[in-house]
Amino acid sequence: MPSTDLDSWHLRRALELAAQGRGLVEPNPLVGCVIARGAEIVGEGWHRRFGGPHAEVEALRVAGPRAKGASLYVTLEPCCHQGKTPPCTRAILDAGVRRVVAATRDPFPQVAGGGIQQLQAAGLEVAVGVLEEEARDLNAPYFKLVETGRPWVIAKWAMSLDGKIAARSGDSKWISNERSREVVHRLRGRVDGILVGHGTLGRDDPLLTARPPGPRTATRIVLATHAALPPNCQLLQTTSETPVLIAVGPEASPDDCQRLEQSGCEIFVCPGRDPHKRLLALLDELGRRRWTNLLVEGGATVLGSFFDARQIDEVHVFIAPKLIGGESALSPIGGSGIERIEEALPLVSPQVQTLEGDLYVSGRVKSGGQTFLSGK
Q1: Gyration radius (Cα) of the chain, Å
Q2: What contacts 156, CB < 8 A, 6 or more positions away?
Q3: How is residue 67 annotated by DSSP?
Q4: Rounded to whole angstroms, how far apart are CA atoms 15 and 19?
Q5: In this predicted structure, what is the pLDDT of residue 373?
Q6: What is the per-residue pLDDT for 3?
Q7: pTM higher than 0.90, yes or no?
Q8: What is the mean pLDDT of residues 271-298?
Q9: 312 Cβ partners below 8 Å, 6+ apart?
Q10: Does the annotation count 77 as an active-site position?
């Protein structure tokens, strides 16, 4: 059945509802649902927490008997399998819904078109693809995790107007202002992991926690090939409060690894000798743990490694109206970089805000190897 402007209107509301689950439902997708009789909304809901009722069930509960004969609008294909909750297709059929409009199919192997087929086989009218780009953009991290087995990588850095992340001495506190740092803490509070290199750890001794806490408690990750961490750093003093994962190479000293484990850290040995392959092995491991979002806070060497591996999906950059100068002062992204400007990776629909003087630029990175974003 062809879609209408009314379908788009209801689905936009469903997308708004779905976004409220960010940071609360992962590794599940963000899903919103609206039940309507014509222009009248009789029920709405969203997936509020991992393991909790799905959006369709929430909306059907609100609609009650008025769901019979109504249209159901949902941002992702209804599930048709028994997971932590019963299949949504069963609830939809039991409620007597007449028509289902889904923004996009669910790539999860246990669904993958099966939900749509079940509804159609039961005689319901089903439309798929209304506001599909918006729905895929909303759930881009989920699509990446399902389709590639790796988490969505968010790169964050603060820099001066002349593109420096620290003075030539290495001092970097504070380039950005307090308002910018508040935004960073909100980012930290909705991701599964926060990653830095051992250089940043030794230089800045960051705590890498969200203050105040957000909906998720991120594991702190340090890339430390030789397992050499400052013994009195804040991370090692707080392992009982917030998890710490140290990614080391095969050449790391077993004694050093054991000391870190005794301090409460988890050790993951990245196989091989090639840094690029080690990085991908770590991302594969995080994907196996069903991590959806990883925040990479640098410094330049680590960000350069992710850039060269084309593993940055989204950036959040805070530009302070300051000049630092110095040829030896670091820029945000090290590594090999690109050879020609035409190879630069553009941002998709970047957003620019002013935060009490700082310029805040955010957006998703357009890379030809990624298929989980619309508009590729």
Answers
A1: 23
A2: 184, 187, 295, 296, 297, 298, 315, 316, 317, 318
A3: G
A4: 6
A5: 54
A6: 55
A7: yes
A8: 94
A9: 153, 155, 296, 303, 306, 345, 365
A10: no
